[in-house]
Amino acid sequence: MEIAIIGTGYVGLVTGACLASFGHNVVCVDNDSTKIESLRSGEIPFYEPGLAELVDKGVRADNLTFTDSIQNGVSKASFIFICVGTPPKVDGRVDLSYVEQVAYQIGQNVSHNAYVITKSTVPIGTSRTVKKLVDKGVHDSGRDTVLVNVIVASNPEFLREGSAINDFLHPDRIVVGVDQLWAGDLIMELYKPIECPKLIMNPESSELTKYAANAFLATKISFINEIANVAEQNGADVREVARAIGLDRRIGNSFLKAGIGYGGSCFPKDVSALYQLAGEGGHDFRLLSSVIEVNNRQRERFVNKIRSVIGELGGKRIAVWGLAFKAGTDDIRESAAIDIVTKCFAEGADVIAYDPQASDNASQVFQGRIEFAGSALEAVNRADALLVLTEWPEFRAVDLDKVRETMHRAVVFDGRNLLADLDLFEKDFDYYGVGINY
Ligand code: UGA
Question: Which of 165, 326, 340 maximizes ligand 1 atoms within 8 Å of its Cβ, making it the mutation to test the pocket?
Fold first, then answer.
C-alpha cells in the first residue's frame, strides 16, 4: 500500500521504517530539509536501537524514501499519517499548531480519496478538527470535497523509546478510532503481519485511550514511589513489596520500579494534558494532580536525602551516573536526572556527570555549568557522593573497588536501585537506595 508519514521525529520514523518492513511503499516527509538530507545519507537524528538498520533496509529495498515536500509526499499516498510533535504549552495544555498546519497542507495537496490518520498524541476531539482543516485545504485549493473524500482516523502509538521497534512490531494491541467500521478494517490491513487484539472504536475513545494508558502507568509509578517512601520509614523493602503485589495478575509486575519518578517526553506532558482536559470540561481529576505532585516531590526527597547524609551541598563534589530520562536512549526531556543535577548545582555543588549516550544533549542544557567525564570511573574521582540517576546496565559492571579507592567519600545514592543487589556495604560504601533499608 502507498503510505506517507508526515513528521520524521521519533514516532514518525519508527512507524515509517516498520511499515516499510511489511512491504508497503512508504515516503517520510519533513519540512526540515537538512534532516531529510541526513536521513537520505543514513543518519538517524536520535539514538534508538535497531532503527538505523531498519531504515537502511527500507532504503535499500527502495520502499522507504524521504522528501521535504508534502506535495510529493502525499501525491500517491492512500494512507497519510500525521506524526508531528504536540509539545506542551506553559499551562500544560497541548500545542496543536503543527498538527493543524499539517492537516490543512494535506488538504491543499491531496487530489484523490485518502485516509488521514493521526498518530501524534492529541486531545479528544482533534480528529474532528483535522477533518475540518483537511476539507478546508481541499476547498481552498479549488477542489470539491465530494470528489476528494478524506476519511480521518486516530491511531495512537504505544511504543517506548529504547524498545520502539519491538513495541511497534509486537504490540499488546492496535487501536484505530474512526466513525466507519469498514474504514477501520481497511486501516487495520496495514498492520496485517502483526498478531494482536485490534480494536476499532470512535475517534474520541481512541484519543482518550492514549492518555488513559500513559496516565495509568504514571499513576502506577507514583503509587510505588509512595510505597517506597513508607517502606523507608518502616524497615520494609519496596522491591520485595513490588514483586509480591505484582504477582497478583490484577496488578501486574510492570511499571512498579520505585525511583526518582517518571520523566521523558510523554508521561509528564500527557498526565498534565489529561488533567487540564478534564478541568476544561469542569471535572477536577484529583488523582492526577496527586500523581504529578508525588512525581515532583520524589526528586526533592532524593536531594533532601543527599543533604541529610553529606551535609550542605555547597562546595561538595558530586558525581552523577546517568542523565537520560531512562536507559537505552539519549533523550533528556523532562529527565528526573537533569532536574536533580540542576537542584545540586543550584545549591553550589560541583557536579561531574557521565552518561553513555546523553552527555551531548545534556551539555547543551547545562552550558558549561557542570563537568562531563569520559567514563563512569572518571566521574567518581575525588567525589563526595555518587548519584545513580539512570539505570544503564553498564554501571553495574564498573569495578566497585576502584570506585571506592578514587572517591573522596564512598557514599552512593542510587535513584534507580540499580546497584542494590551488589552488596555495596561489604565493599565499605554507604549505600542509599529508594525504599530500601539496610
Ligand atoms: C511511554 C509509554 O510507556 C509508551 O507506551 C508510550 O507510547 C510513550 O510513553 C509515548 O506516549 O510516546 P517512554 O516515555 O518511552 O514510553 O518511557 P517509559 O519506558 O514508559 O518510561 C517513562 C518514565 O517512567 C521513565 O522516566 C522511566 O524511568 C520511568 N519508570 C518506568 C519508572 O520510574 N518506574 C517504572 O517502573 C517504569
Answer: 326
What is d(CA 65, CA 75) in angstroms, rounded to the nearest whole number? 14
Reduce the DSSP state of residue 127 to 3 states and report it. helix
For the record, the C-alpha cell of 181 comes out as 467500521
pTM equals 0.94
Cell numbers found for residue 217 = 502507568
Residue-by-residue DSSP string for 393-432: GGGGGS-HHHHHHH-SS-EEEETT-SSTTS-GGGGT-EEE
Residue 150 Ramachandran class (φ > 0 left, ψ -120 to 50 alpha, else beta): beta
Q: Which of 14, 86, 161 to mutate to test the pocket of ligand 1 (most atoms within 8 A of CB)?
A: 161
The grid coordinates listed for 219 are: 499513576
Q: Is the distance from CB of 134 to CB of 111 less than 8 angstroms?
A: no
Q: Which residues, 6+ apart, have CB-to-CB distance to 199 below 8 Å?
A: 173, 174, 175, 176
DSSP type of residue 191: G
Pocket, ligand 1, Cβ cutoff 6 A: 121, 157-161, 214, 217, 221, 255-257, 259, 262-264, 266-267, 325-326
Three-class SS state of 42: coil
Contact present, 107 and 6 (Cβ < 8 Å): no
Cα(60)–Cα(267) distance, integer angstroms: 36
Sign of the alpha-carbon torsion through 200, 190, 174, 158: negative
Within the chain, how many helices (H) and strands (E) appear? 16, 14
Return per-residue pLDDT of the chain as tens, 438 residues.
999 999 999 899 999 999 999 999 999 999 999 999 999 988 998 889 999 999 999 999 999 999 999 999 999 999 999 999 999 888 878 899 999 999 999 999 998 999 999 999 999 999 999 999 999 999 999 988 778 899 999 999 999 989 999 999 999 999 999 999 999 999 999 999 999 999 999 999 999 999 999 999 999 999 999 999 999 999 999 999 999 999 999 999 999 999 999 999 999 999 999 999 999 999 999 999 999 999 999 999 999 999 999 999 999 999 999 999 999 999 999 999 999 999 999 999 999 999 999 999 999 999 989 999 999 999 999 999 999 999 999 999 999 999 999 999 999 999 999 999 999 999 999 999 999 987
